[in-house]
Amino acid sequence: MKKILTTCIYCGCGCGLYLNEDRGLLTGAYPSVKHPVSKGGLCVKGWNCHEFVNKMDRLTHPLIKENGKFRKATWSEAIELIAKKFKAISSESGPDSLAFLSSAKTTNEENYLMMKLARAVFKTNNVDHCARLCHASTVAGLAATFGSGAMTNSINEFEEADCFLITGSDTTSQHPLIGSRIINSVIDRGAKLLIVDPRKIELSKYATVHAQQKNGTDVAWINGMMHVIISEGLEDRAYIEERTEGFEELKELVKDYTPEYVEQITTIPKNKLIEAARIYATTKKAMLVYSMGITQHTTGVDNVKSLANLAMLTGHVGFLSTGVNPLRGQNNVQGACDLGALANVYSGYQKVTDADKREKFEKAWGVEGLPGNIGLTVTEIISALANKKVRGLYIVGENPMISDPDQNHVRECLEKGEFIVVQDLFMTETACFADVVLPGASFAEKDGTFTNTERRCERIRKVIDPPGEAKADWEILCDVARACGYKGMDYKDPSGIMEEIRVVTPIYGGMKYDRLEPHGLQWPCLDENHPGTPYLHKDKFAKGKGSFMPRPYKEPVEFPDEEFNFILSTGRVYWHWHTRTLTGRTTTLERESPVPYVEINSEDAKELSIRNRARVKVTSRRGSIELVADISDKVVKGSCFIPFHFREAAANVLTINAVDPIAKIPEYKVCAVKVEKL
Amino acid sequence: MKLKKILQKDVEKLLGEAAKKWQTYVPSKNDEGDTLFAILPKEKDELEKALQRVNLKDDWVAISPKEIFFPQVENMFSFDKERITEEIETSKKLIFGIRPCDLKGVLFADEFFKRNLEDIYYLSRIEDRLIVTIGCNTPPRKEACFCTSANTGPFAKEGFDLELVDAGNYYLVEVGSVKGEEFINLYSAFFEDAGDDEAEKLNSIESDAKEAINVKVDFDKALEIMKGDKDLTENYKRIGERCIYCGGCVYTCPSCTCFNVFDDKLGDNGVRRRNWDTCVFRGYTREASGHNPRDEKWTRTARRYEHKLKYDYSVTGTSGCIACGRCLSSCPVNIGMSKFIEEITTNKRNM
Asked: Most buried of A179, A479, B45, B187, CB within 10 angstroms?
């Protein structure tokens, strides 16, 4: 019976929990009492995060596809095949005919190695991961305005805030241990809660103001709030003067966004907008919180920049219990970004287009000729399989068949893919399309670090051995690099990888393993004496002066019309995680949410004569799915919501793969569909 | 048997000896600052290290000792085409240093698993068991412990084999059973008779310990109210709405014993396991048709409180709540039994 402290595999809260082991079986997960996030409690996913690890259908040995069927293979066979194929493709069609999808579920060390494998060994910047699908807009938008693309403040600061402006985050479902802090603050301390969200979420019932905007009209309401603030003189003049630049342009742009005009665009009653603007502007400790509802739009970067404008306008950045707080979804999506599993940056957001940075990494990695072009992103990589621009694809711990927009398009691309490697825990919907499948180790079977949404880099620890011949992702990546003749990827253990990360990544400079005991450090953590940084932009912005970047409102790509007359938004439920590979194998979670469903407003249901729990067909220009109707007033008339977890009725059959021009994030939150009774 | 005493510095040696004979469970403080139950290893160097970690002071153990007999997940049996192989655990156990409230929980669970169908998986684990409790001079969960309200602490009155009470540089040792007496005789070198004045000292430590419990509620009144027909819907609704359905209150509760059974299979082979389940989940009561008699959140909240304070009481004569306060201290949104009792007995809204 062992009980070992590690970090939860699910959301970005990064709760500290103990995994219990008894004779090789994981027998439970308990919260750490002393951990700063969990504090003795967990959400239901955390309490049950051990179960999938034990499953008998884990991948236990490498598989090679021959004549359309998988056969067992040895590690050396599989690794040699990958090396041979990748080298051949690269020499025939150039380095950019290869691409690498890293994973926000693997460790920092593994993400670093994935980008090192792509860049140092195969000389391509075609390396990306699912942050592209969730917070690429944040990374771009906040880096441009503030100089750092991360959550500005810390989770425990939610316990002291007096106002929350929450938009596009179903916080209690997706970040339960942050959602709970908001509930406590609102009920027990009387903090004000402003929610701008098209849906009624759990938190709506506590809202001081709940404004339900029409999906995809975020820039308009944010500009509208700024209009109200400026016209009522509620902006923080001293702060603007001292710490920002570009205010005049902002003032000019938001002049047109009168509450009346904004009401026309967004359907938010003007009084609600005015009330919310006043409360947010006049409360000192006000935290702005957002998530996918803001980022997953073709205007994702504009949305983020506009929120940054709003926070700067009111002087709400750079102090305790304030800030702009994008809640990162995956347990290690912050870390995967930090460690450079992105098409445009090395670890620590050092740009691949910067010749000095390239030279620095060439020296560190002992290679020459690192590419200076920005690589392809997730959706571009998948599409490039179809036209053979990408011929070899290496996927670690991602499941684009379920997670990427426009599933029929994704399937077609994967079918056409010439050589695909998938490294995962289970035979996922995507792995079925692979030529080589490699069995990875779960979070309970390896050492490493995750970085949570508040930039806390914390340890995960090995509790049990991986099943069969499965290996830690970092070991597999090193094997591939070696097989390709690269000498610079030999490590004894993950702490050795972190030592290299520290040297080349300034914000992780002080993240030595022994310093991460017991509960991690928050970046920037520049050197071994640096205490870490609970909140960013204290005294001045990371980039010097914060930049107002006013943006005009633009319509989403696909609004409803006569035929496709509903707005569809997609998202998640409390009980499941993303593509359900893990939670679908967890008895308690799967029992709570066993079937796919679509939320429909009761008025629409009446008009269409649809009973609650009846089966309906939802169709977009991309495809159709059949699922159960969940009738309520959670969504407004004319819109519907589908959780994207279920392969049985994948919401991403319907979604559109239009992307934000800068962040390349798809518009998961708006597309047009029709709903039919079956 | 007369009151005994053992020097605090000798407890380590005693445990070192006992670990050779028993599977010995102790509260153990780890490098991360958390105290959890751990088994003392048999190997000498490992044992030395583990003994340094034994923590009988006032730290909060998040999970009650029910996990020793009723793990969060356990294998019941494995199967293939030919046979079923049951997994029964029967080690000789010494549970050293559990709290009086937790003891109540363990005894309550024992009764449950014996009451109707005899549960071999549980009963085999408790077959050979010696329990040494330690009284709480100060409450481990300062904001949550409310044992004095339910008479379940801070010192145990029955059901233990031995009970230790911290009396400075030694523990006073009360003997509660023949097994406990045998234990003392076996390790008589570590124990001596307590002086005549020590009983008095024990009383005074106990009355100080009672004083130290901060949270006090009218438990008996709550049981009366729950027996009657007072409409508590408003309370249930408010609390049910606040709840985030993590299941933590049930998972950490020493007397909650619900489990779910599931199979993990691959081809013809598989294993049947059971895991902790909770009545606050919707799926717990959902019927095969999809109909759910407890579909609305508040009805599940009501179920939990009614089970603990009404149903258990009417069936067993004791409340299902043993007043440990773990439901409150593990709840991300600060819901807890003590607060519920305070609400219904004082009509003061506190959640």
From this structure: A179
Query: Chain A: nearest CA to B335, how far in angstroms?
Result: 10
Is the Cβ pair B242, A187 closer than 8 Å? yes
- Of A299, A326, A353, the residue at which a domain comes to its end is A326
User: Parallel, antiparallel, or unpaired for β B170-175 and B129-134?
Assistant: unpaired
Q: What is the rounded CA–CA span in Å between residue A563 and residue B96? A: 71
Q: Which of A129, A651, A657, A70 is nearest to A386 (CA)?
A: A657
A298 shares its domain with A339: no
- Whether the CB-CB separation of A356 and A370 falls below 8 Å is answered with no
Q: Can you tell me which residue has the tokens 């599993």? A: A341
Nearest CA in chain A to B282: A592
Chain A environment of B245 (Cβ under 8 Å): 44, 574
Distance from CA of A270 to the nearest CA of B (A): 29
Asked whether the beta carbons of residue A32 and residue B245 sit closer than 8 angstroms, the reply is: no
Residues A437, A573, single domain; the answer is no
- Using the predicted structure, report yes or no on whether residue B59 has a pLDDT greater than 80: no
Q: Which residue has the tokens 């559990």?
A: B98
Question: Based on the structure, what is the number of domains in chain A?
Answer: 4
List, for residues A143-186, the tens digit of each pLDDT value. Answer: 999 999 999 999 999 999 999 999 999 999 999 999 999 999 99
Q: What is the pLDDT of residues A517-526, one digit of tens each?
A: 999 999 999 9
Q: Answer whether residue A555 is part of any domain.
A: no
The pLDDT of residue B160 is 97
Contact criterion met (CB below 8 Å) for A183 and A202 = no
Provide, as residue numbers in chain A, all residues whose Cβ is less than 8 Å from the Cβ of B30.
3, 5
Residues 6+ apart with CB under 8 A from A252: A550
The whole-angstrom separation of Cα B199 and Cα B201 is 5
Look up residue A608 and give its two tokens: 């269409």
- Give chain B's length: 351
With contacts defined as CB-CB under 8 Å, which chain A residues touch B270?
56
CA proximity to B146, closest of B319, B303, B332, B339: B339
Q: Min CA distance, A6 vs chain B (Å)? A: 11
Q: Tokens standing for A239?
A: 């702060």
From the list A34, A41, A592, the residue facing B33 with the nearest CB is A34
Instruction: Look at residue A396 and tell me if it is in a domain.
Output: yes
For the stretch A314-353, pLDDT in tens is: 999 999 999 999 999 999 999 999 999 999 999 999 999 9
B265 interaction partners in chain A (CB closer than 8 Å): 56
pLDDT in tens, A33-90: 999 999 999 999 999 999 999 999 999 999 999 999 999 999 999 999 999 999 999 9
Distance CA A576, CA A557 (A): 29
In sequence order, what E strands does A575-664 have?
597-601, 615-619, 624-632, 639-643
Given the cut 0.90, state whether the ipTM is greater than it. Answer: yes
Q: What is the pLDDT of residue A463?
A: 97
Give yes or no: residues A253 and A389 share one domain: no
Amino acid B1: pLDDT: 65
Mean pLDDT, rounded, for A650-661: 94
List the single residue in B71, B282, B330 with the smallest CB-CB distance to A31.
B330
The partner residue sitting opposite B290, judged by closest CB among A3, A34, A613, is A613
* Cβ contact B16:B9 at 8 Å: no
Are A1 and B30 inside 8 Å of each other by CB? no
Write down the H helix ranges in A283-365: 292-295, 300-313, 333-338, 355-365
Q: Which of A2, A10, A17, A30 to mutate to test the interface with B (most CBs of B within 10 A)?
A: A30
Scanning every residue of chain A, which has its alpha carbon at the shortest distance from the alpha carbon of B64?
A: A30
Chain B residues touching residue A42 (CB < 8 angstroms): 246, 248, 332
pLDDT confidence of residue B116 = 84
With respect to residue A544, please indicate whether it lies within any of the assigned structural domains: no
A51/B241 Cβ within 8 A: no
Contact A417, A393 (CB under 8 A): yes
